Amino acid sequence: MGALGSAGTGFTPHIITVMAGEDVSSKIMSLSQHGSRAICILSANGAISNVTLRQPATSGGTVTYEGRFEILSLSGSFLLSESGGQRSRTGGLSVSLAGPDGRVLGGGVAGLLMAASPVQVVVGSFIPVVKKEPKQIDSIVQASAPAKPAPGRMTGASSPPSRGSLSESSGGPGSPLNQSSGACNNSNQHGLANILWK
């Protein structure tokens, strides 16, 4: 269960409406500054007129786009962290946008994310649960202890081999997985090599 990361409690959704001419990033940051709640972006829709993105390949590491771009995806989170008695926020935003010609651009938000129309952002806030790391001695004991199978269950090499052929439910010729045709049929993967990607 520890591999899943830490959990949170008290999940609360919030709807932020950003008017044309306002910065979406700063509105989200102002919500994240209230109290000790962490936030994550759930969805967003609307149009952007000006955006500055991190793009390490360019000189200066950022690029600014101006025009009208529809938000395809806005994601990110801001967590409260504490180090040496100092509290700070960590996290950031990433955006994918579509231009008027259908081209898609995106990256990490490095500055303005100016609304061209009203932008609606749905944010979830929660109280992160911080678990203390177990003592190193405990983790060494747990790691060196042999795994004990549950009573009456066979595991590993003692499990009997499978018998029979592929069934309809496991991808055999009669499987619903092999009944599709056309563009959604994944059985002809070599055809994708001929598509030119730009």
UniProtKB/TrEMBL annotation:
A GO CC term attached to the entry: nucleus
Keywords: DNA-binding, Nucleus, Transcription, Transcription regulation
Region (Disordered): 142-188
Superkingdom: Eukaryota
Composition-biased stretches (Polar residues): 177-188
Domain called PPC: residue spans: 8-147
Main localisation: nucleus
Subcellular location(s) per record: Nucleus
A GO molecular-function descriptor: minor groove of adenine-thymine-rich DNA binding
Any Pfam family hit: PCC
Bias (Low complexity) ranges: 158-170
Function: Transcription factor that specifically binds AT-rich DNA sequences related to the nuclear matrix attachment regions (MARs).
Notes on the domains: The PPC domain mediates interactions between AHL proteins.
Name under which the protein is recorded: AT-hook motif nuclear-localized protein
Species in which this protein is naturally found: Ensete ventricosum (Abyssinian banana)
